Structure formats: structure tokens, C-alpha cells
């Protein structure tokens, strides 16, 4: 059934009564009211469980309710009493389920039993855990280790992640792609080159001391709502917040703090952005160059008049290299080019530069709007250049602040889930566990896809996630997937990746983080790392959804026991009995960050990792921070020459966590009851001959012999720059060519896909 779209531009603040109503609605729909009192008591609280939604920092002194609307939705989704049982699978063939929407699949509730796909009946059938492990282990023993992939989505704990990467390495490969490859890989590669750290430098307390905040390409109201507390406090100190985003995202505009009775009663929101610049998709480098140009001009003037300098000359001289080249590039770049590529007038960029110049300490926040472009790395590194000009790294109240995605995506990297061998202490691992680790780099997400398409992958193990739905080129990938021999999906709910079956397919259900994880030594603690590098403990509080679930560490341990020869130095079973022992292993292999790990579990606010850049020590080749030159002003694959090619931004609604769709409302954008939409500039729509409220068809504007097209997208005249349009992920993933990824990081370029748009004559012909 096609839902009828309702669109009314939203003037509602983020938070406020809208979020309370949404919370009540989602708890009712998931029949999860019982978890509301627990939300208040335990969610992101000391000795409680850590939210499975976003990775934003958890304060040492939590608020009464340390959760947001979307954290609550994630919790209701996990703790719903609905169940996807063997009975459900007996009633539906996989072919039938392939026609279901993402929402409907997961909305059936939690998986309860290990299942194996039976091709004869086209159904999943329950299987015993022992039988499943024995069969998977026997199969894995028969494959070429280089042709097996161990994917991880970013939710699994540090303990599970450590065990999982060790399993892959003992098995014989570094094929450890993770969701980070689709996300902030650009950050990990880019910041390492600029600053010698793969992670951000900002801690939560920096928000209390900053006097200017920049934001590029991040949607705070939906994707990291708890960050709004820090932004609100900053605004109460009159700190300017300068936002660059093609869309006017409500979260960056106004916020009513649901924890603030006065504000709730008076409904008088806090204005968040003090400047809002609707940059065109892919236009950020140009915008930043315009700001840098302004800083140079102001600094020139200060030098002439003997006024206060804008550049931090001492910092630049002592701590950086490459400034002269960057300065020359900025001076050479002319305003007309900057205006054309950014889509912003010079005066706007001068205003942003002026605000920046006046601040003693600046924080720069960013998200997928910078990382998911062809020149994503240049985006991130140009932003770092701006900060370096004013010495805004390693000074209280300043720094670079990538807002990560999954709740432990950053941590998985920290404990060894990485396809790049240089990031992992392989020698130490080899010595400790008595084996010769594989030395060649493994496959990242895009490379794993390429290998699947080429028919060279025999088995794919998925620790969570919805890989096929999250990656580009859906049609090609789904077709290729079926030629694999084995697919093993460790999951909490049914999703489309489980339905694209291989020769043999297993669905292994697991606990969620808020559930009690009882092992031989008692209830277990797990840990995770937030966006600001702080490590937190999490203790499940709720009874498991089914008696047949195993924990993730247990599943990984049993897979390892079944697939690997016994190794007395790797006591998988004992580790799964007592996760503290896994933490001891992590502490011994990663001592700099994790020394005394078990003793530090309950440090309020988590304990931070050691990030040298915070001390202005630069772990780069040169020992300095690097100004790096952007290759071009546009970060997009679209060269901007054909006005009929639009840049498609694929993004998240407020009712979604990645491919998990909680509902069909995007309250903050005023979009209701449908996800098959396209937000378009009215002039573009009229020029392209699409009727108002009509349906559009998008076709990817690349010439590689593959037709990528999607129809049935209801057009919304939306406030975004001409030439930019926006629609939802994952519905639009089939439009993204697999080869359109960020240079170096290989993060798929999901944020400015070149597309042609036209009227769709056959309404509802969604593909
Ligand atoms: N509730 C909820 N929370 C989440 C998630 C979720 O799906 N739901 N996902 C989690 C994950 S894994 C991640 S990675 C993060 C993602 O969080 P975000 O980084 O916020 O990612 P997106 O939702 O893709 O939104 C990107 C933003 O960038 C803007 N944008 C697009 N292109 C450009 C551009 O070229 N320039 C600029 N300046 N802006 C641009 C878009 O308009 C949008 O506001 O959130 C995490 N948190
Ligand atoms: N076009 C486009 N594509 C994108 C993006 C985009 O912005 N645009 N964003 C990209 C980004 S940033 C990311 S991170 C990826 C996300 O890619 P993934 O991380 O692979 O996908 P998710 O949708 O987060 O995975 C959801 C599934 O995870 C399982 N799950 C949930 N919780 C748990 C758990 O605790 N344990 C286990 N074992 N399983 C669990 C459930 O079965 C659920 O169906 O998508 C990427 N794809
Ligand atoms: Mo992500």
C-alpha cells in the first residue's frame, strides 16, 4: 500500500512537546511502555546501560532524563514485546518477505531462535545452536581464508569487537570492513594525515568554554539530539553558532529543552544557529576557502593598523607545516569562483569568517555532509586548516568534533576492527596468541562489495547491521550476493540483508545492550567508546527477549571454537564466561588507552583515550600538524556544468536509525506518512517539468553502462539551494554507483549523487 504524503513546513522547535508526543506514540506502537521508568533510571546513567542509538558523549553528571526522543525510540524498538518466532517464518516464504518494507520486517519484533534458510521450502527453519555452529565451523574450515569477510556494524561492544577481529586474524585474513567505512572513515584517514589522530579532539567540557561553534553537514536534532544540551548552554552564554547545511534543519534552528519545565511551559525555544548558510551540496570547500580568505584579509588589516591579529602566528610557526602553501592557494582563489561553487554570497562568508576571527576558541562540528563526498577528505582537512589558522586545536574550548554514528563504531576501530594492518598491533597479537597474523591489508566495505560482485567471496559473516541495504548499487549487489556459499547474520531483528540468501544462510539472534547478559561468572558488563573518545561501561537491566538468545561474545566464541584449531592461549569459552578477562586482553594489547581497564569502568562520564593532539603533540610523520591543500573547490562527482544534473543528498529522517525505520514521519522536516519523497527546489522542479505535488523519477547521471533509476518519488517544494535535492536513505541507495566513493577513504559518496530528474508518468512505480 502506498501511503499518502503529508507535508507542512515545520516551524516547531526540536525537543519540546513534539518530542514528548512522539515518545508516547512510539512507546505505544511498540507496546513498550514498561521500559519508560527504566529509561529514566538506567539509560546512559552510571551503573545503567548505554544508549544503542547515537555515539554522542554521556556526561559525568547526567540529567534526570539522559535520553532523547530518538534514544527512546531505539530503546522501545529493542524492548518491544513483539517477537519474530519460528512460527512467523513458517507462515512466510522468503520470497514473500522480500516484498515487505524495511519498517514491516523489523516491526515484527525481536528474533527469538537461530534459523537456517531452507531452499526447498523457501523458508527459514529453526536450528539448534550446536548444529549451527558445527556446520558454520566446518564450512569455514573448507574456504580460502582470503575469500571470507567479517563485517561489523558499529553497535557491538569493545569486548565483542576485540574477539571478532581476533577470530578473523586467527582464521587468516584482515577482511574486517565495518560501518565506519561508510561513515567517518573519511575522518579517520583525514584527521590522521592532518593532526596525527584518527579521532576528534573535543571533550564534552570544551563546550562549556568555547566561544564559537561551527557546524558543517550534521543534523543534530535527529542524529545526536543530546548534543543540543551543550549547544543550548553555549547559546545561553551568547556563543555564536554558525551552520552550513543545504537544508534548514530544525535542530540547528530552535530547541525547547524537555528537561526544562519553564521552557516547556512557556514554549519559548532557544535559538541555536546565529548564522545559517544554505551551502549547495558539495560546496563546503569553497565556503571554507571564503572564510579563510576573510581571515587573511582581516589579519592583513590588523597588521597594518597594529590591531589584534587574527592568525595565531606563534602556533602556526611552532606547530604546523604547509601554511604558506595554503595561504597562497587561498589568496589565489577568487571570490567569483568561491561564490559559484559554494552557492553563497561573499557577504555571508565574510560574516562567518568575521565571527570566527573574533573567537578565542572555536569548535568545529561535522557529519556525513562532509565525509560522504568524492573530496570528503579535502572537506575535513580544509576545516582543520581553518582551525589551525587560529590555533584552535589543543586549546580548551576548541577543537575538531566529528559526530560519529553507531554507539560504538569508533570503539570497534580502537580495539582492532580494521582492514588496514598499520592500525593494529599485529606483532603483539601474534606474540601473545602464538600465531603469525596475516600481513596484507584486508577488504574495506567498497572492496568487499567489488569482490562479491566479482564472485570471489565465499562467505560473509555479519556482526549486526544490514549490509546490503546500507551499501550503494542495491540491484547489482543483491544479485551478486546470491552466488556466495555462506551468509551468517548475527542480528536482533529481521532485515532485508537476511532475505538475500546465499547457498547456506544462518540467522543468529542475539541480546541487545539493555538486556541482562548472564554468563557463568554472573551478569556481565560491556563497554563502548563515545564520539569524544570516552569509554563507558554498560550493564543490561532487562530480561532477554527470548531464552534462546546468546550474547554476541558467546556467539563469536562459539564460531571461533568451531572454525579454528584449539589454541591454549586463546580460551574463547573462558572469555565468554567472564568479559573482564577480555578487557584484560584489550588492556594488554592497547595499554596506552586501556591500562587498568577493569579498574576504570565507572569513571563518571567515561575515561578518555589518550589523544596526543589535545596536548598539541602531533603524531604525524613530521611531528607537526599539517595544513593540507584541497584539490578543488567542489567535493562532488558532479562537475556542475549541466544545469539539469542535480546533486542528490541521501539522508536520514527523524523516524529512523540507518536502515531501521521506526515510522514514516520526519516531524522536524514536516514530512509525514511517506518516505518515497524527493525534496526539491521549486525552480528546479518547474524547469524539469515536474508538476507540483507530482511524482518524479531520478536517474543517475553517469555513463558507465548501468541504468540506475527510481520512480514514484513524490516531489516536495523544499527550501534548499537550486541544483541540490534530497531524499531518503536506504530507499535511494540503488542510485549510487559503487565506484563513487571518497578518494582515499572509500566512503561511498552518498551526499551529492549526480542525478537527472523528470516527471514520473506511472505514479507509484517505485523501484
Ligand atoms: N536518530 C538517529 N540517530 C543517528 C542515526 C540515525 O539514522 N538516526 N545514524 C547514526 C549514524 S550511523 C551516523 S553516521 C550519524 C549520521 O548523522 P549525520 O552526520 O547528521 O548524517 P545525515 O543524516 O546523513 O545528515 C547529514 C546532514 O548533512 C547535510 N548535508 C548533506 N550534504 C551536505 C553538503 O554537501 N554540505 C553540508 N554542509 N551539509 C550537507 C544534510 O542536509 C544533513 O543535515 O547519525 C547517527 N545517529
Ligand atoms: N545512501 C546512503 N547510504 C548510507 C548512508 C547514507 O547516509 N546514505 N549512511 C551510511 C552509514 S553512516 C552507516 S553507519 C551505514 C549503516 O549500516 P549498518 O550498520 O550495516 O546498518 P544498520 O541499519 O545500522 O543495521 C540495522 C540492523 O542491525 C541489527 N542490530 C541492531 N542492533 C543490534 C545489536 O545490538 N547486535 C546485532 N548483532 N545486531 C543488531 C538489526 O538486525 C538491524 O536490522 O549505512 C551507510 N549507508
Ligand atoms: Mo554511520
Automatic annotation (TrEMBL):
Cofactor(s) essential for the protein: Mo-bis(molybdopterin guanine dinucleotide); [4Fe-4S] cluster
Domain Molybdopterin dinucleotide-binding: 646-754
GO biological process: cellular respiration
Domain spans labelled Molybdopterin oxidoreductase: 110-488
A Pfam family this chain is assigned to: Molybdopterin
Family matches, as InterPro entries: Asp_de-COase-like_dom_sf, MopB_CT_YdeP, MoPterin_dinucl-bd_dom, Mopterin_OxRdtase, Mopterin_OxRdtse_a_bac, Prok_molybdopt-oxidoreductase, YdeP_MopB
Domain of life: Bacteria
GO cellular component: membrane; oxidoreductase complex
Gene Ontology MF, one: 4 iron, 4 sulfur cluster binding
Keyword annotations of the record: 4Fe-4S, Iron, Iron-sulfur, Metal-binding, Molybdenum, Oxidoreductase
Residue spans crossing the bilayer: none
NCBIfam families: Fdhalpha-like (TIGR01701)
Family under the similarity heading: Belongs to the prokaryotic molybdopterin-containing oxidoreductase family.
Protein name, UniProt field: Formate dehydrogenase oxidoreductase protein
Organism this protein belongs to: Orrella dioscoreae
Amino acid at each position: 500500500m502506498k501511503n499518502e504524503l503529508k507535508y507542512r513546513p515545520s516551524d516547531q522547535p526540536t525537543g519540546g512537546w513534539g518530542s514528548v508526543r512522539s515518545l508516547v506514540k512510539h512507546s505505544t506502537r511498540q507496546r513498550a511502555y514498561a521500559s519508560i521508568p527504566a529509561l529514566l533510571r538506567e539509560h546512559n546513567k552510571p551503573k545503567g546501560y548505554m544508549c544503542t542509538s547515537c555515539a554522542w558523549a554521556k556526561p559525568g553528571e547526567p540529567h534526570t532524563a539522559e535520553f532523547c526522543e530518538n534514544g527512546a525510540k531505539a530503546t522501545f524498538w529493542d524492548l518491544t514485546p513483539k517477537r519474530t518466532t519460528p512460527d512467523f517464518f513458517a507462515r512466510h516464504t522468503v520470497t514473500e518477505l522480500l516484498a515487505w518494507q524495511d519498517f514491516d520486517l523489523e516491526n515484527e519484533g525481536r528474533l527469538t531462535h537461530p534459523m537456517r534458510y531452507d531452499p526447498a521450502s523457501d523458508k527459514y527453519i529453526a536450528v539448534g545452536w550446536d548444529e549451527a555452529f558445527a556446520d558454520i565451523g566446518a564450512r569455514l574450515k573448507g574456504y580460502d581464508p582470503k575469500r571470507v569477510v567479517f563485517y561489523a556494524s558499529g553497535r557491538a561492544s569493545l569486548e565483542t569487537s576485540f574477539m571478532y577481529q581476533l577470530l578473523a586474524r586467527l582464521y587468516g585474513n584482515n577482511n574486517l570492513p565495518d560501518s565506519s567505512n561508510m561513515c567517518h572513515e573519511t575522518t579517520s584517514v583525514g584527521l590522521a594525515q592532518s593532526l596525527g589522530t584518527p579521532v576528534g579532539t573535543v571533550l564534552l567540557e570544551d563546550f562549556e568554554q568555547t566561544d564559537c561553534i561551527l557546524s558543517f553537514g550534521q543534523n543534530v536534532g535527529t542524529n545526536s539530539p543530546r548534543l543540543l544540551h551543550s549547544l543550548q548552554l553555549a547559546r545561553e552564554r551568547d556563543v555564536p553558532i554558525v551552520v552550513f547545511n543545504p537544508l534548514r534543519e530544525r535542530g540547528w534552528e530552535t530547541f525547547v529543552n524537555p528537561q526544562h519545565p519553564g521552557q516547556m511551559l512557556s514554549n519559548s525555544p532557544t535559538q541555536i544557529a546565529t548564522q545559517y548558510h544554505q551551502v549547495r551540496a558539495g560546496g563546503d570547500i569553497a565556503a571554507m576557502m571564503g572564510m579563510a580568505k576573510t581571515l587573511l584579509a582581516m589579519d592583513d588589516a590588523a597588521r597594518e593598523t597594529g590591531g589584534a591579529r587574527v592568525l595565531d602566528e606563534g602556533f602556526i610557526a611552532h606547530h604546523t607545516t604547509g601554511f604558506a602553501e595554503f595561504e597562497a592557494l587561498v589568496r589565489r582563489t577568487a571570490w567569483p569562483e568561491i561564490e559559484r561553487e559554494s552557492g553563497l554570497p561573499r557577504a555571508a562568508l565574510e560574516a562567518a569568517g568575521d565571527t570566527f576571527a573574533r573567537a578565542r576558541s572555536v569548535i568545529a562540528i561535522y557529519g556525513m555532509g562532509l565525509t560522504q563526498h568524492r573530496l570528503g577528505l579535502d572537506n575535513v582537512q580544509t576545516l582543520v586548516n581553518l582551525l589551525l589558522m587560529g590555533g584552535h586545536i589543543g586549546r580548551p574550548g576548541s577543537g575538531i568534533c566529528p559526530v560519529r554514528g553507531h554507539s560504538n563504531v569508533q570503539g570497534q576501530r580502537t580495539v582492532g576492527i580494521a582492514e588496514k594492518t598499520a592500525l593494529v598491533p599485529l606483532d603483539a597479537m601474534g606474540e601473545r596468541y602464538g600465531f603469525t597474523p596475516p600481513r596484507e591489508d584486508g577488504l574495506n566495505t567498497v572492496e568487499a562489495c567489488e569482490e562479491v560482485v566479482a564472485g570471489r567471496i565465499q562467505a560473509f559473516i555479519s556482526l549486526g547491521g544490514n549490509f546490503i541495504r546500507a551499501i550503494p548499487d542495491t540491484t547489482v549487489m543483491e544479485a551478486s550476493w546470491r552466488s556466495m556459499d555462506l551468509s551468517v547474520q548475527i542480528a536482533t531483528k529481521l532485515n532485508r540483508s537476511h532475505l538475500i540468501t546465499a547457498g547456506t544462510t544462518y540467522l543468529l539472534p542475539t541480546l541487545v545492550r539493555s538486556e541482562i547478559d548472564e554468563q557463568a561468572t554472573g551478569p556481565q558488563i560491556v563497554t563502548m567508546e563515545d564520539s569524544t573518545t570516552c569509554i563507558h561501561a554498560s550493564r543490561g537491566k532487562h530480561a532477554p527477549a527470548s531464552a534462546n538468545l546468546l550474547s554476541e561474545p558467546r556467539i563469536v566464541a562459539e564460531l571461533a571454537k568451531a572454525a579454528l584449531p584449539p589454541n591454549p592461549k586463546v580460551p574463547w569459552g573462558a572469555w565468554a564466561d567472564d568479559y573482564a578477562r577480555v578487557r584484560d586482553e584489550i588492556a594488554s594489547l592497547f595499554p596506552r588507552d586501556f591500562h587498568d581497564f577493569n579498574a576504570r569502568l565507572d569513571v563518571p562520564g567515561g575515561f578518555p583515550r589518550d589523544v596526543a593532539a589535545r596536548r598539541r603533540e602531533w603524531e604525524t610523520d613530521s611531528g607537526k600538524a599539517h595544513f593540507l591543500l584541497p584539490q578543488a573547490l567542489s567535493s562532488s562527482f558532479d562537475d556542475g556544468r549541466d544545469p539539469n544534473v542535480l546533486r542528490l543528498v541521501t539522508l536520514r529522517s527523524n523516524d529512523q536509525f540507518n536502515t531501521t525505520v521506526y515510522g514514516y514521519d520526519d516531524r522536524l522536516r514536516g514530512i509525514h506518512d511517506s518516505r518515497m519523497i524527493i525534496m526539491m527546489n521549486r525552480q528546479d522542479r518547474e524547469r524539469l517539468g515536474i508538476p507540483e505535488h507530482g511524482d518524479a523519477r531520478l536517474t543517475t547521471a553517469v555513463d558507465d553502462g548501468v541504468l540506475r533509476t527510481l520512480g514514484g518519488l513524490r516531489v516536495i517544494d523544499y527550501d534548499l539551494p537550486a541544483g541540490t535535492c534530497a531524499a531518503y536513505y536506504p530507499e535511494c541507495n540503488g542510485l549510487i554507483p559503487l565506484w563513487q566513493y571518497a578518494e582515499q577513504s572509500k566512503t561511498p559518496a552518498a551526499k551529492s549523487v549526480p542525478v537527472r530528474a523528470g516527471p514520473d508518468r506511472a505514479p507509484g512505480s517505485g523501484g
